[in-house]
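As described in the Methods, two query proteins were run sequentially through the folding procedure within a single session, without resetting any intermediate state between them. The first query and its resulting structure tokens are shown here.
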Amino acid sequence: MDANGSRYHALVTRGDWTEAAQPDEHWAWRPADPAHPAALGQLVLKPLLFEFKASSAAPLPEPGARAGASFDAYGNLYALDADGRSIRVWSSGSGTITDFWPLPQAPAAEAEAGAFGPCAPAGPATPPRMDALVVTTGHYLVAASREAGGLLIFDLHGGGPPLPQPWPHMPAPEALLALDDGGVALFAAGVLHRLGPDLRPCLPRTASPTAFSPGPAPLPPPAEPPCQLVLGADATAVAALPASRFLVLRVKMDGLYLSVIDWAGTEGVSVGPLEEQIEQATADQEPTLLSTRTLAIEWPADAATEGFDAVVLAASGDQAFRFAASETAPGTWTFELQRDFIPLRRYEAGGLASLARGQVLHRFPSARAFYAGAGRWLPLLTLPRPRCEREGVLVGPVWDSAVPGCVWHRVALDARRPPGGALSLQSRAAETPEGLALQPWRAEPELLPHPAGSELPWRDAAHGSCGEVQTLTCLLQAATGRYLQLRIQASGDGQQSPGLATLRAWYPRFSYLQHYLPAVYRADAAGSAFTERFLALFEGELTRWEDRIAAAQLLLDARTAPQQTLQWLAGWLAMEFDGSTGPARRRALLRHAASVQARRGTVPGLLLAATLAWEPDEVDAEAWLAAPQNLPERLHGLRLQELFGLAPPLSGSAWRPAQGRAVLLAALNGEESLLADAATLQKALGFLPRAAREEAALMASWRLAELPEDEPRPAGGDEALAFDAYLAATQACAPLRQRWQDYLARRWRGIQALNAAWGTGWRGFDRIPSPLYLPAGSAALADWWRFEAQVVRGLGPAHRFRVVLPLPGDTAALDFDELARRRAAVERAVERDKPAHTVAEIRFGFELFRVGEARLGHDTRLEHGLLRRPELAALATLSIWPPLVLGERDLGGGQLTHPRPLPPPDRVGLDR
């Protein structure tokens, strides 16, 4: 409700736009972009699939019997050449394509006639023609060849020549599929033939009767998949799925279908042919001819992501179509066409090769499938080629104002109107719903962008996933009646679509003519209608100002304040934001401003500021702001080290006051001077007395100094005057003496207490110099030792601290520029919040693991050792530590790779 009492009906959510309203078939809902938390979904014109139309003269390449290729576990791609007599490999490391088998033979040197030597080997026999190949989960390369009479098995771990596996009467292979158990399935003439993990053809089990049965009947063996699975003559292509299931491409009378079948024969077929989805998704509505021999599966790059996509090629070989598979119910599958433009360049009818789930090639990190083209294997990538419907009509719901004779005020539409797009508004109003259906649609004025943004007070403009959203407004001209209905007509250029985010219809209109002008201005009906609409223009702007004034309290709440006012609000609280802090983090800091400011300069406050600067804005900081004292207990969190705690303790053999003065004199060989041999003092005390050396140097320099002529020299016998002159002259340049006097003042509080304990007669603490000899009394000796062993030794690291930064959890994806930016943000935060007399340094955790600096049980909690991270512990159980890469990994965070990949421990042998 605004300041004048007007209210509004609105369309905001997906249910409002798609259920309450009545969009035609040309509309579709686009969800909000997750990257923008404040963004709203939009109703857009339905996206269309861009279809590349080949010329009529272009040939239609169909894959032959030797189509397709297979990746191994390390990203190497194996494929047959054009004639099927050799296997070529595309290495993932170098990116080169070389011969895998047979290897090219070096030309033999011709021997002289009659010379003694080995006979020249016979020329290599012509290798057999191979029909299909696949790499199994056990890392064997299996090639099927009818000409060779069976299979050729290559051990990719051990190397060497292929192992022939005879298979009499082997059917003509069309494809080989890798099974989960390490076996292989051969597809031929609509039938799948299973080979076990030993890569031998499966034979059906026959129950043989036993002559003796002394005990109870043995348990039946566990159920195994059948040796054959009949798919039918309409099955033309097959791909393997997990859990012993297969994706089948079937050719029926009305088109191509996709289905999922298991070894038991249970099958779930897609609803409707694939060509029908493509025709409905294209702009020309022309039939599309698909290839019946090519089928591939695109697995997600994240191993934890469920689902897969099926890829089918156009028969022309110019384009691929992607269908997202989903199991809506057990045994029920749907395949929805994705409106992605996937072109193929110089496709050579070699089929497709797919990466396994979670497998990524560093050369093509976004590709999931590859095709043979232009003499090499190319990634199957999606290109941006947007297409959408050109026109669409949306009829809004019937809105009830509950006010008879209501004058509907205006419409505010938050929408995106791209260049070439248009939005027009129509309305009709009546007193009854029945009469509303009989009213004609009335065109309203053009929707124009409001220069001040949204009419709602202090509301930021919403940002949609497809660009900027602006508020379009329109003053309703003659919408009078209790019920109102709106209709929106949208048009575009076929490449960019208008987007409808929110719509608000305000009612009733607050009339300046009725409330503020005399009745004479309402005498003429036509003139009064114009005057009311004219004054409504000013009323809308003035009401917006009144709403902002009435809603000024929203500016003082961090939850509702606009983003551009957060810095202004922080100024009232004496807070300063770093330039890299996002809006969500700024709002959280403002909500907890009282506790944050109260802890500023303390250890929890500094650790909180450093953590907020180091962690990304996407991480929720509410728990840290509510209880910053728990930050030191975070696993892999930041650490704050006060360096005075890093001072090494005295050795166990060093003297302690409890041992007495006689023991110390014996260790010093009876020497009471604190200026004795440095090695002797260091061995006996564990440290060198610094205050005594400072005092001795000052005394020597004062005695040798030339006094000014106008200053009287002290008498030689008046030692008191000489000592007073010495103290006055050297007090300013004797910092250790000042600390010694301050220590004694804090220790004894009064000079009488010190004299009673020491047995002396000092007149004040400011007259006590640093001792040059061991104090005679036990109390004075203990005070001197505590000062030298604790206070003076702690001066070096005093008021110094260190902030230790951890590395991110995913060390394989380190962005060094991002680390440098975040470290600079921590430095700015610490420099801003630390006490002025302190000195701070920023270090990474792995820099502290060195002898003499790391403290076991304290600093080691930061990383738990680079090899004991949780994400690396899982790799340790599999014995596949990440390899060391120069410039990317830390020493100790990986291992040198083996010259040859090691086979898994459970690998099935082939009795070679």
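Immediately afterward, the second query was submitted; its sequence and tokens are:
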Amino acid sequence: MFKHNLLIIYRNFKRFKSTFFINLLGLSTGMACALLIYLWVTDELSMDKFHEKDSQLYQVYMHHEENGEIRSAPHVPALLADALEVEIPEVITAVEDTDADEFGEGFSLSVGEDKMKARGKFSGAEYFQLFSFPFLKGNPETALSDKRGIVLTESLAKKLFGSTDVIGESLAWQILKFKGQAKVAAVIADLTDNTTESFEFVLPFTVFIDDLMGPERNHWGNYIALTQVQLVEGSDVAAVNNKVGSIIKEKVPNTNVEPFFKQYSSRYLQGNFENGQEVGGRINYVRLFAIIAIFVLAIACINFMNLSTARASRRLKEIGVKKTMGASRKHLVFQHLGESISLTLISLGVAYLLVFVLLPQFNAITAKQLSLDLTVDLVLATIMITLFTGLLAGSYPALYLSGFKPVSILKGKFTTSTGELWTRKGLVVFQFVISIILLVSVWVVYKQIEYVQDKNLGYDRHYVIKFPIEGTVADRLEPFINQLKQVPGVKHASATTHSIVKSGASTTGVTWQGKNPDSNILFEQARAYYGLIETLGIEMKEGRSFSEKFGAEEEKIIFNEAAIKVMGLEDPIGKTVTMWGKEKQIIGVVKDFHFSSLHEEVSPMLFHFDKSFMLSVFVKMQAGRPAEVIQGIQSLYKEFNPGFTLNYEFLDTNYQAQYQAEQRVSLLSRYFAGIAIIISCLGLFGLAAFTAERRQKEIGIRKILGAGGFQIVRLLSADFTKIVLIAIVIALPISYWAAQSWLQGFAYSIEPSWYYFAGAGAAALGIAWITISFQTIKSLRINPADTLKDE
């Protein structure tokens, strides 16, 4: 019987070629989408999960309460790590840390005369005991215990020394004006793609405090560090957070900050907070694409169901004869399920071929290095997808076809039931509901990205470049910037510690007359050089910016509007505040500008003058001649920094990089929406072809009686038009809710217009009409005499 069923399946595929190829194309495309999304989702879920102590590793975050609202961020006082180890019994180890992104390409390493750029960070002595980065040379327990030690990745060690056997070798490092000597204490394997870390070397955290920041800046009001902890296995994190919440309040009177622990490996996917509550993050995109994969597969399966049941009349005699000969319904169900699973297996082979071909392009879009390795997980996932698709696609046709009564079939009294028609139409409605929701989503995401790109941020990011301060430039910043301003095409030049496009260092160490003693405001803080406001095109609301005309400005300070508002100051110019124990006079108030992403509202910010510690130079160039101006800047840079290469970035590019996730979602959504529409139209094409075929005699008679082409077209397309219109009515409210839910993740967003939804509905209807028109035009061309002659 098995051999017989295989033969029947082969003959049916061969007999109904158009149906076979429509189903094959739909199922293989749907399965290819599902496999690609599976690879992406699996990679996303694996981020930071490889550490042996993953279940015990937590990142320390801070809740900052301001005016009834709570902001949550990972930067904490560097003193917190030691306090946690001493005061919280559940904390086994707490490690101070910095983020490699804070320094970017600012580090240079040198062996002899050769200098090299590299991404580095500072971490506490027990960092490599907490995190499972594979060691090639050296001991993880002692790698960072010596202040002069340094840990290199394998690739960096080979670039510097040509080998990984480099324990004890010396090198020099420099960032800004800070220099030091170090000996290689360990070499670790290159970081893999499933970690959120991006460093190439690690220096001891004591270097960061003693040499860069200075011990005087290491206090409870300065949030300059990250901290990770290892908890006792099985600890109740909620109970531990209750203890941790008051640890800073016991040391700083009237503070409004509360530390809390968040699992380290969950930060990547669930790192967004709203008013102190976790509100997701990238996990929303993981869920979104997992749902899309299921829906695209479901749409392909619906095509199979509809075409199989629509063409049931072609197989009635086969079913009737088999039932008459004693075949049970169970046997027929297994036969038809076998047919759907056989088609699914063929589609799987095509799907794997599609994935193999498309994976490089998919990796380029997602910025990942996914591969189609036949791992146990991938094989199991493939089996699950195949069985799910085969059973879902074949279940309804199998139960439907096996339920016919042989007597009715053999007497020719079979008629299509109303329930069958409504089921088939309902499935088509479902297909187009999903397609329309995807169309609306694509449009909303696209318009939001467009809004982000075009929004007035309160500063001018165009034709502005930035580059790190290093080498002799750090020691001769003033003459360098003065000469930089003389380069043809340079309009303004200045320096700061802030990236301008995302949040950085912050402080609560600001007091003023009339300040509420129970209030502890968190200020974003940026050290600024002369002319920074002018270089960035930030508009002054009142007062002035830092200027050489007024000499030393170390005792001056500038706030933004949001800061003045929360401080409750009226006529702030000339008033005095105290910052870190030193009095500073307010000389200006800048209008609010977006110094972080549009996901966040503008928060209090201050600029204070401090030319002794700067991270980056910003240069505003004249429009239309950036290549020429940059060449002039490079020449000047070589004069000041022989042996160094100018590594510059455009501020506009930095800004756009914040929205890479949204841009990738936008692009992927377009592809998946297009695929969903195509698969839906394939099914509609097949049903239209079948309907036109069954109504050929009716069409012939109508043409003989004088019906015109338009009337025939309206006749054949009326039912399908109603189906798509019903789908539009159902889909638009759902798509509006989905759009609003996604836009809530932005503090500043578009308001979806009615034409987004009307356009998506009209597009779906237009595509459906075009699909149906191929069959109706084909039917109109058939000679009525050929359809009415009696065989």
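DSSP finds 25 helices and 28 strands in the chain. We note this only descriptively and draw no conclusion about the first query from it.
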